[in-house]
């Protein structure tokens, strides 16, 4: 069904466990969520392109440098690759201001991905995230949205911004086999 589709993945709360009221500021604070390393190779078989779009306000707040973020991401990508998965490119928004054009739900990171990979078709894309801002980001662009209730289990489904809801990325990867 999703062959030649693009998968847009949020990071915190989808790929790794979100740290309540804080940020992942070093690799030793980064924990892959259950089943993610097993899910990514399955998703890689289905999706022609997999990109990550992550708000990282901790950079704008001066808690983490871009270099430090990139170190964390390189280690994350190494682990993903060792397990047979892939993430083709990572986009992050360092800005603090909610109105920043790169900060989800604004579409800047999707536009950057489309610029890098012109064959991306948003109407043949899935956005997986754990916030309504992720769902809004996807819906505005005509994507199919998948909600992961890792940090907001109280958000009920059906919901106008959600096309599907799975408890974690592993269950999503199983559902599309
Ligand atoms: Mg998140």
Features:
Rossmann fold; 6-stranded parallel beta sheet; 177 residues; hydrolase; binds magnesium ion; metal-binding; 6 helices; 17% strand; alpha/beta
Summarize the structure in short.
By secondary structure, the chain is an alpha/beta fold. Helices cover 32% and strands 17% of the residues. It has six helices and six strands.
Hetero ligands: magnesium ion
Classified in CATH, the superfamily is: HAD superfamily/HAD-like
Strand order within the widest beta sheet: 3-2-1-4-5-6
Radius of gyration: 15 Å
Number of strands: 6
Amino-to-carboxy terminus distance: 9 Å
How many structural domains does the protein architecture include?
1
Mean pLDDT metric: 97
The coarse overall form would be globular
Report the CATH topology name: Rossmann fold
Question: Can you identify the CATH class?
Answer: Alpha Beta
- Decide which structural class fits the backbone: alpha/beta
Strand content: 15-25%
Low-confidence stretches: none
Number of helices in the DSSP assignment: 6
CATH A-level architecture: 3-Layer(aba) Sandwich
């Amino acid at each position: 069904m999703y062959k030649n589709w693009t998968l847009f993945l949020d990071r915190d709360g989808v790929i790794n466990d979100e740290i309540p009221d804080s940020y992942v500021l070093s690799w030793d604070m980064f924990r892959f969520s259950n089943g993610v390393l097993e899910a990514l190779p399955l998703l890689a078989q289905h999706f022609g392109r997999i990109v990550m779009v992550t708000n990282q306000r901790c950079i704008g707040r001066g808690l983490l440098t871009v270099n430090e973020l990139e170190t964390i991401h390189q280690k994350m990508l190494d682990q993903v690759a060792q397990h047979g998965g892939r993430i083709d490119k990572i986009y992050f928004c360092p800005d603090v201001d909610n109105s920043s054009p790169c900060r989800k739900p604004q579409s800047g990171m999707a536009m950057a991905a489309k610029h890098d990979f012109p064959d991306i078709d948003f109407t043949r894309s899935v956005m997986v995230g754990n916030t309504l801002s992720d769902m809004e980001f996807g819906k505005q662009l005509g994507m199919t949205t998948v909600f992961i209730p890792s940090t907001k289990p109280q958000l009920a489904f059906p919901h106008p911004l959600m096309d599907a809801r799975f408890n974690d990325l592993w269950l999503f990867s199983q559902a599309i086999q």
